[in-house]
Write a structure and sequence with these properties.
Length: 193
């Protein structure tokens, strides 16, 4: 029996995924459609496998764990891609997310398709971004291929790989305070181009 301390942990045995990547493989990860065995039932998901943890570098694993914890603990929001969990025990850790069946924003509006959904989708992106900002998260990589279109043609912001949590703890030692303070001056304007 494998006991894990992370509530988001998904065993590799519970995930099956296709070899074909969705879209173009990214620099840090590749997304594929698959299924996840959740409480005895298979459900369709997207599995995002990261290929950047190639060494015993604890910083890389820590960054992955922080990313997973940040995303997993976010309250549910219709315009944020739902994270089911992930696995950090391999050289290629992975996230398991809901499957946004209609692809990304660029594909959805390609060749003038779905024009009638432009404003509702746009409003969904704004609502999702506001939700992130209200939770002190700056996405930092918001672009068309990180906005997915789910059921009912609802926009869902995903790919939190470069997110930054904004804020400061006053309990930090002065030296760490100075280093962190310089980084925390990031503005939500980073999400507006």
């Amino acid at each position: 029996m494998n006991l894990n301390i992370f509530e988001w942990f998904i065993a590799i045995e519970d995930v099956d995924y296709e070899d074909d990547a969705l879209g173009y493989p990214g620099t840090f990860a590749q997304a594929c459609r698959g299924t996840w065995l959740n409480e005895g039932k298979r459900q369709y998901v997207v599995v995002k496998t990261l290929h950047y943890i190639t060494s015993d570098d604890d910083n890389e694993e820590d960054a992955f764990l922080q990313q997973l914890a940040l995303w997993y603990k976010l309250p549910q929001h219709e315009n944020i891609l739902k994270l089911h969990g992930g696995n950090h025990e391999r050289s290629h850790p992975f996230f398991v997310c809901e499957d946004a069946h209609h692809g990304n924003l660029l594909e959805f509006f390609e060749d003038g398709k779905h024009k009638e959904f432009f404003w509702p989708v746009f409003l969904g992106v704004v609502n999702g971004l506001k939700f992130l900002h209200d939770n002190n998260i700056v996405h930092r990589s918001l672009k068309g291929n990180n906005i997915l279109i789910g059921d009912e043609k609802v926009a869902k912001i995903g790919d939190f790989g470069f997110s930054q949590v904004r804020g400061l703890s006053m309990r930090l030692a002065w030296r760490r305070f100075r280093m962190h303070f310089a980084e925390s001056q990031r503005s939500f304007c980073k999400d507006i181009h």
